[in-house]
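Appendix B, record 7
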Amino acid sequence: MRLEQLVCWEAVDAADPVTRAAGQLYERTLDPDERIPWASIERSVGRPVATGGWHKHLLLAAPAGHEDDPGWLAGYTYGAFIPGYGGYLCYVGVAPWARRLGVGTKLFDEFFRTMRADARAAGGRLPFVVWESHRPDEPMAAAERKLWAARVGLFGRVGGRWVEGVDFLSPNFADGRADPVPLQLFVKPVDLPLAAFTPGRLRRVVGGLHEQVYRNRPGDALYDGTLPPGCRPRLVPARRAGEADLVTSG
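Structure tokens (predicted):
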């Protein structure tokens, strides 16, 4: 299958078998401590956008001619345009049989296109798209290192840059009493130039993600642990996040 034969579209019916297949792929490919319940995503499918609310999208991908066959679902991505903030890509997954075929790149590009359309419809700009990814705990096994390097390679190809200097502390969705899950952040500048992402602006991007998505504010443990005093994040090439000898900071 060549990349040009891949079709992306938006799910509009939560009961559609292909949408249900996306839910199964979601639960197979993401650890429980990193994901919200699939039912929360299903509830957003096909719903109108409230005035001033998030523009949520579940995008699906399959080879042309197989869009109605759950067995041919190649991947999905889910996220939202958040008015007054930017684009937020929550989750992306590719079926094991479809890996290394350009599915991830196609899904990212389609998501970026959708975010630009939402921003234009809202009468504004799309300053950036941000997403998170969980780096395997050190020391990484060889297979984990290879997978992580491939993932950040994809992020770089689609224009993402790593937010160096920040470990974004996310709740553990499997066990709210467990330690938070440290995530790495990646930002794709869109309508703002790369030079505009100074440490101060990046602190606002990171803080805004806590406030808009996780409902954390300054003074909350996860917020303050992510952005301690003296934290000066910067955007660097995504590959830097994949270096084997990388020491996290935050």
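Remarks on this record: The longest strand covers residues 55-63. The helical segments are 17-29, 38-42, 103-121, 142-157, 199-214, 221-226.
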